[in-house]
Amino acid sequence: MRVVQAARRRIRGRVGEGLDERPFAGVTPLAWAGVVGPVLFTVMFVGQELFRRDEYSPMAEPVSALEAGPNGWVQQVNFVVFGLLTIAFAIGLHLGVRKTRAGILGPALLFVSGIGLLLAAVFPLREDAAGITYDPGGHIVAGLAFFASSAIGLIVLSRRLARDPRWQSIATYTRMAGAVSVVGFVVMGAIVMPDDALLHEWAGLAQRLLILVVLFPCRIVLSLRLLQVAGGRR
Q: Could you give the CA distance from residue 188 to residue 116 in angstroms, rounded to a whole number?
């Protein structure tokens, strides 16, 4: 009789595994942070571009170049807000996806991407007397931290998603977004971002394609799924 009861408990545990796991209520605002962060960041930098059309080229200059010149503090604040929201989102993901061995690594990398955004504000780009944008130190490292950890983080996270029935349907998409981001990161570092690079005149466009077409949509998809999980919906 005890054997039968134990077997029934195991069967119920397997059937219900992952279905009754509901993160605590505090996950919901963390999930919203993942939605608001990319959207607010984009609205803010696009708004700045519109106000600075005479001196700033979105096609040629990266978003960080908005820190240089007049009112650069606005973009610094934009980086800080996005960084804090990214950190909150990373914590929410860790709490909302089933725990696995070394599973913390994916959210941890996304957490690092938030730190990279904060560092981008602490070490802003500057403009010299001739109007040339330059890095006084630290900003390139911040950018590398953001893009590398964002891309690799999605790939690593996808492995954890694949083991949770509530997240399996977007695991492949997350992995592909991460892989495309890694390729984009390498290509930009090789032939786009360096001053003497072949496609340097299109650096701004390349960066915006990477974040607006690949990274940000994936983060929003993950955030929306996290909202569903937090609400107990499959």
A: 18
Give the DSSP H or E segment for 134.
strand 133-134
Locate tokens 């977007």: which residue? 170
Residue 126: strand, helix, or coil: strand
Measured in whole angstroms, the distance separating CA 188 from the mean position of its chain's CA atoms is 18
Q: DSSP states of 97-116 as a string?
A: S---TTTTHHHHHHHHHHHH
Measured CA to CA, the distance from residue 43 to residue 27 in angstroms comes to 25
Q: Which two tokens stand for residue 51?
A: 């106000």
- Report residue 168 as tokens: 């399996």
Which residue is it, tokens 């607006």?
212
Rounded to two decimals, the pTM is 0.88
d(CA 99, CA 175): 18
Bridge partner list, 127? 133
Name the residue with higher pLDDT: 12 or 150: 150
Residue-wise pLDDT for 54-79, tens only, equals 889 999 999 999 999 888 999 999 99
| Tens digit of each residue's pLDDT (9 = 90 or more) over 11-25 | 444 434 444 455 567
Q: Show contacts of 16-20: CB within 8 Å, 24+ apart.
A: 18/98, 18/164, 18/165, 18/166, 19/165, 19/234
173 and 215 in contact (C-beta within 8 Å)?
Answer: no
